[in-house]
Write a structure and sequence with these properties.
Elements lengths: L48 E3 L10 E3 L1 H17 L5
Parallel strand pairs: 1-2
Length: 87
């Protein structure tokens, strides 16, 4: 099943988001483990956090400037490596 995970090659899912784009909107990314174990139909498949672009307002996403976005990834990586996070 290709659900809330990185997929390389052919996509068999009916609904998906292309992450590699020429505009680098999704230049950074991570799988956060939302709705995975077990998968609950209708509960959603992903929460997008991406690079902010002044010309396009986010729709159901979190958008930050690249520096803040990478700072959030660093904080998350530290939290996971130290076990200092909520499940």
């Amino acid at each position: 099943m290709q659900y809330n995970q990185w997929v390389h090659g052919a996509v068999v899912a009916r609904s998906f988001e292309r992450m590699k784009r020429p505009d680098n909107l999704y230049q950074y990314g991570t799988v956060i483990g939302y709705n995975m174990h077990p998968v609950m139909p209708g509960a959603g498949s992903a929460i997008f956090m991406h690079v902010w672009r002044k010309s396009i307002a986010p729709s159901g996403c979190v958008a930050l400037n690249p520096k803040k976005l990478t700072q959030n990834f660093t904080l998350a990586r530290t939290a996971v490596s130290t076990g200092n996070y909520l499940e």
